Amino acid sequence: MVLRANAVEHEESATNAGKFSMTDQAFVQAGDTVAIASDHAGLSLKETLREDLEGMGFTVLNLGTNDETSVDYPDFGRALADAVSDGRAKAGVAVCGTGIGISIAANRVPSVRAALVHNEMTAEMAREHNDANVMAIGARVVDVDTARACLRAFFTTPFAGGRHERRVAKLSAA
Fold first, then answer.
1. How far is Cα 45 from Cα 61, in angstroms, rounded to an integer?
2. Which domains does the chain have, with CATH numbers?
3. Is residue 129 flagged as an active site residue?
4. Which of helix, strand or coil describes residue 49?
5. Taking the alpha carbons of 13, 102, 7, 84 in that order, is the dihedral positive or negative?
6. Catalytic annotation, pick one of 10, 40, 96, 150
7. Rg of the chain in Å (alpha carbons)
8. What is the DSSP letter of 110?
9. Left if phi > 0, otherwise alpha if psi is -120 to 50, otherwise beta: which for 31?
10. What is the pLDDT of residues 100-128, one digit of tens each?
11. pTM for the structure as a whole
12. End-to-end alpha-carbon separation of the chain, Å?
């Protein structure tokens, strides 16, 4: 896959998520902390993405859930958003059944821009145009290979700035 301008070209498939490099303009660098959280519906995908994040060189702050007992996604979305907002993590990945509920919960915290992604293009646009700092994804609506490709796209696509800066500033003021 080839990402947009200023991004790294990746020729390996999404299943090779352990082979990873970033640009100088990436919003997170290897060694940075990335938070991850899910409800029970997203647990399996969360664990796959957690492993991929570790393979990319990130320190992962796992905020749960850690078993399949039914839990409330707003609790985990809020925990993840708080970790990003207070600086314990530079970015986050939120997973629930559809990605919708956990993204709504995360977006209630100031300074968090959680974007629900469904494919590589939406992951790229979340970063390039919206400077999203949290990727939300649905385990029941996105297959594992696509989710892994979304993760790679999200973490390798820089914010374009320019005309988008004005728009992102308006999001923060809303």
1. 16
2. 27-173 (3.40.1400.10)
3. yes
4. helix
5. negative
6. 96
7. 15
8. T
9. left
10. 999 999 999 999 999 999 999 999 999 99
11. 0.85
12. 35
